[in-house]
Design a protein that fits this description.
elongated; 14 helices; 3 domains; Rossmann fold; binds adenosine-5'-diphosphate; 11-stranded mixed beta sheet; 472 residues; alpha/beta; 6-stranded antiparallel beta barrel; binds magnesium ion
Amino acid sequence: MTSAPDGVATSLDGRQFRFRTPVETPFVPGGFVTLRDGGAAGGAAEAREQLGQVDDLDFDGDDTLAGTGKLLGERRADGSLDTGATHPFAWAAVDAADDEAVELVFRAARATLDVGSLIGVDNVRARLLTHRFNRHTFWCGQSGSGKTYALGVLLEQLLVDTELPMVIFDPNGDFVRLRELRTVVDTEAERTLAGKDIRVLRPGDSENPLLARFIDFPMRSKAAVLRLDPIEDRAEYNALVHLDVREEARRPDGIVPALLASGDPAAEALARRIENLRLIDWEVWAEGREAVTDILDDRPDATVLDLGGFAYPDEHLVVALAVLDDLWAKRESRRPLLIVIDEAHNLCSPDDDRPLQRAVRERIIQIAAEGRKFGLWLLLSTQRPSKVHPNIVSQCDNLALMRMSSPLDLEELGTIFGFAPPSLLAHAPSFRQGEALLAGGFAPAPMLVKVRDRLTEEGGADVRVPLRNPAG
Ligand SMILES: Nc1ncnc2c1ncn2[C@@H]1O[C@H](COP(=O)(O)OP(=O)(O)O)[C@@H](O)[C@H]1O
Ligand SMILES: [Mg+2]
């Protein structure tokens, strides 16, 4: 307490504080501060130190800044931070927190998942609370902002730090190299990652094909695949109900002849429908082979589903429906699983009302609303909040926001995610690639982060221009 403080603060309620500082002090929105006051009123007047975070600040006259912030806890004599104890004070000296004090915020929250560096704080790693991935997470940012790369970083760290299994819906083959380390195995983290059971399922792959089993689908989902409405198409729907129990239906190429041979006009109509949709030609059907649901039942550490390589436009939806239906049907087993959906608008857009799209979306809405208690946790990435159904976005408790320049989208995010301070959301238009605002349950405090480097190879990275070999 020898040098003059950066500024002065007051807190009436022991939760928020107001402060004033000269303009030249290094205070920024989201920055951490220490607040020293005289201690409990009427007590022995022992000096007390609390930590706080600046919410916002603005000019207050020519050479003064005025702002507000939140108190985070009291710094104990033993050097720990007691987040349960925040106190009002009439006057406190406020200073920008040093690295050691910022570190306390992470330590007190038991935040261990290292996702990068804190912007503006050189020596403190930005860490998330692994145990808060038992909530849904919304990952948002415009195209090219670095969402997929950052998701890769996050998933690697979850693989290293936890036993939480994950399934990754990968529309562009971005995660198909999640098993391949970029460097020779060297660090403890890399050793752990190298030992993980990571499966990559791809359409048409001879060893690890991505397959679904029609016969396992609930009736509703079968009808969605066939674009059948139980009322409008009642005759065909009914033929499907009866087909369901027959042995031939187990093999797609057995279905059409069996239906045609039945002599029933509705069954014939159903056969023609199947032919017209070219369902028999779809590569996705498992027939006797192992389906994606069988593999997920074993709960590998990570299962990457490469949804991009199918020949027919609905096959990736069949995979999604197979997985989500199966997880939901088995929800009572309460086996935790992180369900990662990159480009989530492909699977849960609010606008697409075709039967299969609707069936997939309804399942995701259901998991968003009720999946948490069964251990089904969503991690959804998309370009703007309005591209995913509102009943899904509103269920997310964790937010990652990368570069986003649309004021309307930012306003919408601010409304949905009240825990994200407007002063930090306002940074999103000027984020560089790889920079993010992380806020909500999984962050000890809202924070601006520069995402760290990937440990494993990216899959769908831009194709490079082949260069000439150096002369030699
Ligand atoms: N933090 C980062 N460090 C290095 N390269 C990155 C980083 N973030 C993104 N990139 C690169 O930028 C390109 C676009 O990033 P990507 O994650 O695919 O963006 P998005 O998913 O938001 O469209 C990719 O080629 C990726 O390799
Ligand atoms: Mg992407």
